[in-house]
Each structure stands twice: as structure tokens, then as C-alpha cells.
Amino acid sequence: MAAPPRPAITCHVLDTTLGRPASFIPVTLMSLPSTSPPPPSAPPPSSFTTPFSSSIPTIIATGLTNSDGRVSTWNFATLPGQDEEGSRWRIITERGRVYMLRFETEGYFQRWYGDAGGFFPWVDVVFKMGGGDMMEEDGRDEGERKHYHVPVLLSRFGYSTYRGS
To answer: Residues with Cβ < 8 Å from 17, sequence gap 6 or more?
Structure first.
């Protein structure tokens, strides 16, 4: 029997303090509405805003990191207005689409460090499909990849992330 296809978005959490994968962290994959930045002639906003500041994310799927710190299976949400047999959300990898991964880290830190926990109760990673990609010499759009991997290096008082492979 063939293995199921790899999801278009995968993630991995490593605890850099303990030097091990971070298991049993709930992860939510959300989609943010794509918006265009204001034109260069627009006046600067009076307060800190981003094109996504007022956007309400749509939950696409949920998962839980396994003993290797990876979400191996996404549980896709049912589309509004559809029954359980209806269609489900899918990950679309078109250039410019914006996604957010929310890692619920508070419970993980409490398991390892008790009531002291960690500084970040959750970690949000927002990324854009094709962000930073270049066009290939043959005109192919490198941003239209079929897979995006988002690792998170986590400690009690900090985290970092990058686009993996």
C-alpha cells in the first residue's frame, strides 16, 4: 500500500533547551486573507498596522506534534455549510497566499518546567507562499512549490523559525 501524500505544509518543533523534539504541542493551521500593501504615495498609518492586522484567520486544520516533534497528520476542518461527507479545506500553494501556524506552547512548558512554564504561551508563525522566491531561468515560478516546511526552534524564553526543505 502506498504511503499517503505529504501535506503541502509541514512543521517541526525542537526544544533547544532540552536538546530534543517537542512532543504533544497542539498546532493550528490558519489562512489569512491576502491583501495588497498600500501604494507608496499613501500616508503612513498613525499606529502600527500591517496588511493583516484586522484580518480574521480561517482555521484550516489542527494537529499535534508527535514524539519526533512533527505534525504527521493534519485534521482538516469541514467547510462552512457542508456536512461531514462534504468537502474539506485544502492547502493551496499559490504565490501570495498567507498562512499562519499557531503552536500552543504553554502546556508543553508547564509539563517540563511546572508552574514557571515559559515566556511564550503560544507562538504564531505567519508566512507567505512564494515569499522570497525567484523565478527560475526557464520562467517557472519557484513560489508555486508543492511543499513548505516550517521548523520552530523553541526554548523557554525565545524561539526562531525559518523556511525548511
So the answer is: 155, 156
Amino acid at 126: V
122 vs 114: CA distance, rounded Å:
16
Phi then psi for residue 2, to 5 deg, are: -75, 145
Q: The pTM is what?
A: 0.77
Among 90, 91, 96, 122, which Cα is nearest to 107's? 122
pLDDT-based confidence at residue 54 (cuts at 50, 70, 90): low
Q: What is the CA radius of gyration of the chain?
A: 18
How does DSSP classify residue 56?
P
Place of cell 507608496: 40
User: Contact, 124 vs 159, CB < 8 A?
Assistant: no
Helix or strand run (H / E) with residue 125: strand 123-128
Does the structure show a pLDDT above 50 at 38?
no
- 3 state DSSP class of 91: coil
pLDDT of residue 145: 54
Q: Which residue has the cell 484580518?
A: 55
